[in-house]
């Protein structure tokens, strides 16, 4: 998406009706909102979500829309610690019928063509890839796309695992679960050896993990222009 399209989208603000929330794991929560008929996004994009039911200091956060456009719902999945920010306290207070506002969708973190793609998720960074895989499931075009998902979590807390495995099995997508950087780099090497700069590289997760993985790819002669990054601050 071009800068101008992004700028335009950011002014598109809409209220989203909260439906329900549930836990994905010990400290990861999913929040579901109603998807209005005329709203859409590209799988992998994010929105800017604002708490509106009370006044807090920093009421807005970017979140990936973790649902695919083909699903009938807007989904956010986020990690909430024992000592949450005011924003996340506000999210936990949401009750059915309350609203948050969303600006967007924005960002260029989505598949543009059928080039082989390596998707690297660090922990909560699985959110854009869940959306991308769900959209592939809806469109049934996994074979053409040659997708390799590497999902790293040092605690082996792989949210969405059953869902991802089911999509991977049916749509010829490879998903590898990892808990160490060394293993991650080995898997990356397999992909870069095969596809080099014919491949596209997507990395999402905590900023430090995204930056080091991007540097690793560049040190292995992958051009910066083939690497897309979604850096999640605050982790
Ligand atoms: C494109 C994008 C998509 C994202 N998608 C998700 C998602 O799907 N799920 C998810 O859980 N999180 C996502 N995030 C991160 C999310 O926006 C929050 O930053 C994160 O959840 C932490 O929020 P918090 O309220 O717990 O902590 P915060 O109070 O926001 O921040 C914690 C710490 O991070 C620092 N910080 C915050 N913002 C910045 C910044 N812009 N630059 C430098 N330092 C900063 C703060 O100073 C503080 O020290 C995404 C971020 C981006 C940019």
Give the topology.
Blueprint: H1 3-10, E1 13-25, E2 28-34, E3 46-51, E4 60-64, E5 73-79, H2 86-93, E6 99-106, E7 117-122, H3 127-139, H4 142-145, E8 147-152, H5 161-171, E9 174-178, H6 181-195, E10 200-206, H7 207-219, E11 227-232
Parallel strand pairs: 7-8, 7-10, 8-9, 10-11
Antiparallel strand pairs: 1-2, 1-6, 2-5, 3-4, 3-6
Helix pairs in contact: 3-5
The structure holds flavin-adenine dinucleotide.
Please give a structural write-up.
This protein folds into 2 domains: 3-106, Translation factors (Elongation Factor Tu (Ef-tu), domain 3, Beta Barrel), CATH 2.40.30; 117-232, Rossmann fold, CATH 3.40.50.80. Helix content is 31%, strand content 32%. It has helices at 3-10, 86-93, 127-139, 142-145, 161-171, 181-195, 207-219, and strands at 13-25, 28-34, 46-51, 60-64, 73-79, 99-106, 117-122, 147-152, 174-178, 200-206, 227-232. The longest helix has 15 residues, at 181-195. It binds flavin-adenine dinucleotide (FAD). Residues 46, 61-64, 66, 77-79, 85, 87-88, 107, 124, 127, 230-234 line the site of flavin-adenine dinucleotide (FAD).
Number of domains: 2
Bound molecules: flavin-adenine dinucleotide
Looking across the biggest beta sheet, what order are the strands in?
4-3-6-1-2-5
User: Which segments are poorly predicted (pLDDT under 50) over 5 or more consecutive residues?
Assistant: none
Question: How many beta-strand runs?
Answer: 11
Shape descriptor? globular
The biggest beta sheet, please?
A: 6 strands, antiparallel
State the distance separating the first and last CA atoms. 27 Å
Q: What is the strand content? A: 25-35%
Instruction: Look up the CATH topology of the largest domain.
Output: Rossmann fold
CATH architecture of the largest domain: 3-Layer(aba) Sandwich
Structural class: alpha/beta
Listing every helix as H and every strand as E from the N terminus to the C terminus, the arrangement reads: HEEEEEHEEHHEHEHEHE
